[in-house]
Write a structure and sequence with these properties.
Glutamine Phosphoribosylpyrophosphate, subunit 1, domain 1; six-stranded antiparallel sheet; Rossmann fold; about 500 residues; about 25% strand; globular
Length: about 500
């Protein structure tokens, strides 16, 4: 997962300021690197580097980012180096001058890389699939052979992108001197939402971003989500164009967005993330009452921050006290998206500190959003015991994570997932808990579906059930990404590897 944003504002307004503010709002989607590209007339301005948004951009750099349109990106750290050459947005000068920022992961990168070199005669400078996506788009625009670009040319190029590229991709692109393009894969796996702002003088500014909070924080009114397979264009004249560019598109938003990735105050595909997490807590409470009715709990304690919303209805339904038992250090990043197991371990005890009086001599029900690798859960359970807990149980708002995720989340190796090949009792033993209870997949799906009844088949949940909806993921592909993207590979290699956003 990464955070992306694109904007076209009124003339004389600097897009870089809106892009910077937007990236701050979606910083939780990526903490490794950040970048902003803007255009003034036909000239490109680009600043990007490793680090948080606030650290990458200072006053001097911001003053160089001229123009009233641009795109921004914050990168999610995964396999490969933290070399700033992997930071986005990416740029190619032909045709027109193109910039692209991408959230997701292509599942046919290897084949596309070969096609770009042998057939399209294009050179790639990194191992990022985002650069592959950009060059496919650039090639398809080139073959149109137009000196003056029109929306028909853009839609035709994106149609070919959908035909050639498989996997998950939400992208914003900037065509110098023309406008901003936003498009989403035919399954709509990763989120992308658009908004507008009516400016004085009648000009309409447009913005596209990963989450609605980026729009509303900048005074934009949410219009709608970009549909699966759709392409939208905001040109410099303030015109808005949209077209469906894929055959048989169907929405399968990622379940993990609602479980963990997105901010609770975001709306994704018509579903309030906050309310979906409340429903997760309600369904999980009903399961706990059915299956653990003989256990007397003293207190419900969330593992901050994501699980707070689910923990509240659990405590309410069970008639238990809800207490904040852990204090979070705000200056430590999200441990789930740190690039290696050792870094996650070393940071969890810096990130959370227990309040002993909430644990001493109590049977504690800890609520977490999910249990992925188990290293975080293991240390948190031990912290609870060290703080005096008599017994420690763990409830997960998500089902067991047993399979690799190939659509943009850092879960590449099945053997690194603690629930792979284990049942709940075995997982409890591994993390040192007295018991573990998981959300049922059907209840998680229903928690999301209730926010938008049009989600008939609901969501992409391959990490829970091993069902890869793009249909081109086989054992060989899973083996390749396991080798290149597991934690051992991250620690061993310094050169860039294919990365997941």
């Amino acid at each position: 997962m990464c955070g992306i944003v694109g904007v076209v504002t009124k003339p004389q307004e600097r897009a870089a300021l809106s892009l910077y503010d937007s990236l701050l709002m979606i910083q939780h989607r990526g903490q490794d690197a950040a970048g902003i590209a803007t255009c003034d007339g036909s000239r490109l301005y680009l600043e990007k580097d490793n680090g948080l948004v606030r650290d990458v951009f200072n006053q001097s750099q911001m003053s160089h980012l001229l123009g009233n349109m641009g795109v921004g990106h914050c990168r999610y750290p995964t396999a490969g180096s933290s070399n700033c050459t992997e930071a986005q947005p990416f740029y190619v000068n032909s045709p027109y001058g193109l910039v692209l920022a991408h959230n997701g992961n292509l599942t046919n990168t290897k084949e596309l890389t070969e096609e770009l070199f042998t057939n399209d005669l294009r050179h790639l400078n990194t191992n990022s699939d985002s650069e592959v996506l950009l060059n496919i788009f650039a090639h398809e625009l080139t073959v149109r052979g137009r000196l003056r670009l029109s929306e028909e040319d853009v839609f035709a190029a994106i149609t070919k992108v959908h035909e050639r590229c498989h996997g998950a991709y939400a992208a914003v692109g900037m065509i110098l001197g023309y406008g901003v393009v936003a498009f989403r894969d035919p399954k709509g796996i990763r989120p992308l939402i658009i908004g507008k702002r009516q400016d004085p003088g009648g000009f309409t500014s447009y913005m596209a971003a990963s989450e609605s909070v980026a729009l509303t924080a900048n005074g934009y009114t949410v219009m709608r989500d970009v549909e699966p397979g759709e392409c939208v264009i905001f040109d410099l004249a303030g015109n808005f164009y949209s077209r469906q560019c894929a055959e048989n598109p169907k929405l399968y938003p990622c379940l993990f967005e609602y479980v963990y990735l997105a901010r609770p105050d975001s709306i994704i595909d018509g579903v309030s993330v906050y309310k979906s997490r409340l429903r997760m807590g309600e369904y999980l409470a009903a399961k706990i009452l059915r299956e653990w009715q003989d256990i007397h709990f003293d207190v419900v304690i969330p593992i901050p921050d994501t699980s707070r919303t689910s923990a509240l209805p659990i405590a309410y339904a069970m008639g238990l006290k809800y207490r904040e038992g852990f204090i979070k250090n705000r200056y430590i990043g999200r441990t789930f998206i740190m690039p290696g197991q050792e870094e996650r371990r070393s940071n969890i005890r810096k990130k959370l500190s227990p309040i002993p009086l909430e644990f001493k001599d109590k049977t504690v029900l800890l609520v977490d959003d999910s249990i992925v690798r188990g290293n975080t859960s293991q240390q948190i359970v031990q912290m609870a015991r060290d703080a005096g807990a008599k017994k420690v149980y763990v409830a997960s708002a998500a089902p067991p994570v047993r399979y690799p995720n190939v659509y943009g989340i850092d879960m590449p190796a099945s053997y690194e997932l603690i629930a792979h090949g284990r049942n709940a009792t075995q997982v409890a033993k591994e993390i040192g808990a007295d018991g573990v209870i998981y959300q049922d997949l059907k209840d998680l799906e229903e928690s999301v579906r209730q926010g938008n009844e049009s989600l008939i088949d609901v969501c992409e949940g391959s990490c829970f059930n091993g069902d890869y909806i793009t249909g081109n993921v086989d054992a060989n592909y899973l083996r390749e990404i396991e080798i290149s993207r597991n934690d051992s590979a991250k620690n061993q290699f310094q050169l860039p590897l294919p990365m997941v956003k």
